[in-house]
Write a structure and sequence with these properties.
mainly beta; 5-stranded antiparallel β-sheet; globular; 138 residues
Length: 138
Amino acid sequence: MSLKLRAESPEDVIVIGGYLQDAAIKVADIAWLPTARRFALVGNRFMWEREGPPHFRTRAGLHFETVTAARIRGISQDQEDQVLELLTIHAVERDGRALVTLSFCGGGDIRLEAELIEAGMDDLGEPWETTHLPRHET
């Protein structure tokens, strides 16, 4: 089953964040395109919706439109092969704009400012079996 999700509210972003929790994303696969006012990334999402074993991952793309600013904190942009693990995505609408935060393991985050919440997540390609179940330190 391939997912195709759209978000137009903070609650929708939470749903997408749940499906992308524990996605493995290379720094090189993250892009903010200021001229297009788009932020996009591609990563390997853990398929939480499939109970296992076996467990599966699939490639997935995420994009936000109308993005006017993107700030990266705690992530080294010059280490393009570094793999980040996405923990959560949070969004709020405030003062006529949308504020979105993507939080990663290790404390790094990406903060987006947008005119409004307009986002999408699409699975790309076929899932593959994985033996690695994401685990978090408590």
